[in-house]
Amino acid sequence: MKYRIHKVLFVMMLVGTLSMGLLGCNQKTDSASTTTVTTQAVSEVSESADVSTTEAKATATTAPSTSDYEITLESNNSWESGGMVCAQFDGLIKNHTSTNGSDWKVTVTVPEGSKLENSWNGNYNLSGTTLVITPVDYNKKVEAGGEIPFGFILDTPQAYVPQQVILDIAGGQYALGEGGSNKNSQEITTEAKEDEIKEDKKEATEETEVATKDTSGTPVANHGALSVKGTNIVDKNGKVFQLKGVSTHGINWFPDYVNKEAFSNLSEYGVNAIRLAMYTVDYNGYCSGGNQADLEAIIDRGVQACTDLGMYVIVDWHILNDLDPNVNKDSAKTFFDKMSKKYAGNDNVIYEICNEPNGGTTWESIKSYAEEIIPIIRKNDKDALIIVGTPNWSQDVDIASNNPIKGQENILYAVHFYAATHKDNIRGKVETAIGNGLPVIVSESSICEASGNGSINYDEGQKWMDLIAKHNLSCFAWSLGNKDETSSFLKASVSKTNGFTKDDFSETGKWYLEQYGK
Question: Is residue 347 helix, strand or coil?
């Protein structure tokens, strides 16, 4: 899903909606490294950094919740550029009282020489080592029992973990980690949460036979329409089935790789599915000036090629720099209504309705979007698999597992990884989500850094494959093309768009094809 070469978060939003500047720590990964750093307590914070793997790590103690308001700050990505450590920080102001609060201010002490690159949901002023954040017109009020997200991207000379963060609101001051003990009306109690996922957990632990490896016939002919049972994808015979896929790069600027011969080449190595990544706003995307008829024709070419070959195919609504899928929700409604009508009779078509929500987009916002889009697809296609993205570049499946979409079947939740960046912390999220009964799919991945480029980490890649095998997860690799970056499946010197030989594949391509052929 990544426009991996241009991993710059070129996000410009109107101040009344999202206040953002241009990213200076360029090559911002669109698949962020969520080394979750919820710096809860001011008093005790320990920090370690491994810049060589582009991760900043921190641990912290958790202060007791005793106050009316709470301020948290979470580092969800870290990478190195130009001698600086760049990181995304997502903040949350929580109101635990029964009255509205207004005109809040957050003050963050940052290292000397810091540079603010991007920001959203607030007005930001960095002077020396003091970053002051105040509300914009639409989020001045923190409603009773509610919360307000904000966030920014900061360049610092060394890895940085916030310790001095102060919230001023309603005549009081609250330090990082101070939180109210009163439950607000939106919180789900532990008991209620257990009730909600009880049946999912029960179903997830039921033993299901795994489908045997295909030796003859096409994947779709052998396995038919897929569905979700517990945390597994199962085939028409009720046996656990794994999609082993490759994603195209953005079809709006790499359309030539969407062809039957190329897909057939990949199928020879065990690939049984293709993901058609159609960007919504980036590079003349579907919602930003791209030729919609041409893009739909490319999708149709890809779907027909997969159908002819008996392969599965994902139609991917590839949000990225639109951050929140609700930004282009009306276009998504029209698009998925059209697609699901056209392919309602296909057993092989899967819909991914939001690639990588990011920029502080909450699960609640993503879920509300999904709850509008899914019924539109279901009106035309009752049973097709539908993939829903999760917060922070589709990494926070654990958060989604605490409040999954209800009343819908055959829903999967996306997790994305880039093995040189995303390690045990993201694998832990997957384990938590599956333990809570959430069906997870790896709809995008690679073995390089989160930028789509940089070094390969084979050891971490193998750990991911071990986890995928353990839970029978489906996996898609990024990406089919010859772009001069590590995640590309083809060498940059290969100009042909089909008829590939083994020597044409990059180290990443060879590794994935070897994994898929096992």
Answer: coil
